[in-house]
Structure of LacI family DNA-binding transcriptional regulator:
Amino acid sequence: MNETNSSKRPTIYDLAKIAETSPTAVSSVINGSWKKRRISEKLAQRILKVAEEQGYAVNMQASALRKDRSNIVGMIMPKYDNRFFGAIAEQFEALARANNMFPVITCTQRDPDLEVEAARELLSYQVDCLISTGATDPDRITALCAANGVQSLNLDLPGHDAPSVISDNGNAAHALTNLILDRCKAELSWEGPLRFVGGRLSDNNTAARLDGFFRAHNERGIEVPDNHVMAAGYSANSAAGRLADLHPDGPMGIFVNSTISLEGVVRWHSGLGDAAAQVRYGCFDWDPFGSYLPGNVGMVEQDVPAMLEALFGLIGKKPKQADPIRIPCHLRPF
């Protein structure tokens, strides 16, 4: 094999000859499907050793045979459509590598069945830990991880069966509501009630933000009518649709639940003509472009670095299941 090592990349046939086995067995070990082929771990170890000695690039699933830990950490991501999730993905990768881990991220479009499919795929890579970010059913993923002996953690949305790191949605929403009400009073001589646009009532984060929203109103003795809560999803089209028939004939204030919904609110707001000057709104989520939007009085920035620092502090440990770790947010007035 000296000629092979010096002049060309070794093939699976070369490896099979040295390992005294079949090319099919070598291929199965290299691509990580050796268990499905019922190849013994002893043979898989021998093939892997030969492949490494010959400088053959091996599949991560195969290389995990060589050590107790794979050092692979997986993350299920719901969307890439705002700065919050984009920041999580980018900073998660950087932090994983800084901790000598290899990050693998997959986007599941808030589809619960796709989340489970993605979890199964990540488990097939023998991840040491699987992180569910904004998952619709995190406990279902935790059960799957537990069956495979893999640590499960939740980020952004909490679960009942695994440790969770989330934003302090309630207190941040309370602060944002007060900011919008204060600006409405100071600039429009109007004291509410505000409208709440975006999100889902069944969603933990929306429920927590509504709690802060109502709490701020109650402290001022302001009653919020039921029809002022317009939580019919996060999409821009949903937000614009709920506001389509609303033509303000006086001052109005809006609490926008995410930058995704904000797009729809801005679309509606831009078509109001002169009435747009009578509207003030704030958004739970952060985008620096928000400061240039007419009528926007401020935004809530979730502390992604602190959330990920808390999350990585849990990886590889066995914390007792407790209440979610809540990370304070930053209110950014404009």
Summary: The longest helix spans residues 169-188. The chain has three domains: 2-65, 72-162, 169-301. The longest strand covers residues 72-77. Residues 2-65 form a domain with the 434 Repressor (Amino-terminal Domain) fold (CATH 1.10.260.40).
